[in-house]
Structure formats: C-alpha cells, structure tokens
Amino acid sequence: MADLEPAVSRETEADPPPWFDVHMFVCTNRRPDGHRRGSCAARGSEPLRDYMKARAKEMGLGRLRVNSAGCLDRCEFGPVIVIYPEGVWYRAETREDIDEILTVHVRDKGRVRRLMLTEKDVPPGKG
Amino acid sequence: MADLEPAVSRETEADPPPWFDVHMFVCTNRRPDGHRRGSCAARGSEPLRDYMKARAKEMGLGRLRVNSAGCLDRCEFGPVIVIYPEGVWYRAETREDIDEILTVHVRDKGRVRRLMLTEKDVPPGKG
What we know:
The first copy, chain A, is α+β, with helices and mostly antiparallel strands.
C-alpha cells in the first residue's frame, strides 16, 4: 500500500514530530501614530502578548509557545494573533479575549467564533 | 455520515481557508554578545530574512509571507526558521540555504534534509 502513496505524502510522514503543539504568534508591529493602517502594537498588542505568555504558563498548556511577530499584514483587524498548525486567526482586544482563546481554542480545541478572523476580513486594497 | 464525525473534526472543517498558504517565521531575536545561548540575530538572521522576503517575491510563490519572530527557543541551532502549517524547522546560514528552502520546500513541496532540525536538536537543558 505504501508504494501507492504520492511523494508529498511520504515527505510529510517523514517530518519530525511537531516541536510545539501550539504555536501562537502575536503581531507586535508598531507604526507611527496616525498611520493610515494603524498597527497591532498601537492597538495594545504588547501587554496582551505578555499576559498571554503568563496565562498559558499558569494554565500548564504543554508544548505551547507564544511568540511576538512582525507585521502579519491584517493590521486593520488587530491586535491580531495566528495559531499554528491550524492557521486560525483571532483579534484579541482584552485580557478576557485572551483567556477565552486559551481556554476554548487551546485547552478545549474548540473555536472562539466571535473573535475569529475569516476570509472576509480583507485589508482595504488587498481584496 | 456527517453526524458521526467528532466535534473537533467539524470545527476544523468549519475553519476559514488559510490566509497564507506558506507562513515562514525567521527568528530575529538578538541577545547581547557573549550570551551563553547566542541568538539568531547575532548569527546573522536579519539580512537572511530580508533576502528571503525579496527572493520569495521575485519567485512569485503566491500566498506566502515571511515574518520576523521573537525568540523561538532553539537558539543554539540558529539562525532558525519555522514554516507553517507543516511546522518544519530549518537552520539557514547562507543565501544559498535560503534559495534551497524556497525552491525545494516551498516551490516543490519537498524537504531540505541537510538543513532541517529534528526532534534530536534539543537545546542544552531542555531535554
């Protein structure tokens, strides 16, 4: 049977196990005040990242990492977070939002629909 | 049939399509010179990130983004890159390494074994 599988599938099977089970990237790009697109840091992403790191550690969520990232290019919908490997994007504006993402998405493997970005959340000029 | 599927599977199916097909994170964390662990920026990751951004654009690789990231915590093996959604990690030290990753991994959906980090690449004290 294995011989019938496509090469790409075999490559994937041979990949090392995930280094982090949950890898969260919080945009902390900062643009000057008054910039047309705004920026996640100007919308408060840095303290939210710090809170998320601390809460995730307290909750003992396993092989999880919260990282800062440069501009994720969905600035208008920030503060923006993307979670891999599933590639789900959220907008988090408060500590309560962060708690809900950690509890519902990460711990319980569900989705926080009210905070999720979709394919309709397209920055102006990018459509 | 759909009723028999587990809840997590249904959640996944309902996720929005990937915003980026290939999302590459280059660690650009910089520690002071002489730090025990070193850092990816001290190992030259910033110009490699710039080169990767420019080359990916030239190659027309579609919905791909190259982002800077904070410390990915595999400093000893840097400059470190992680590619999602597949979660494959690479060490890239030269422009030729970047070209090979973009060509073989991203364009051809293969793997660059000689540059790939595996589960054996564990930072000292983290095993």
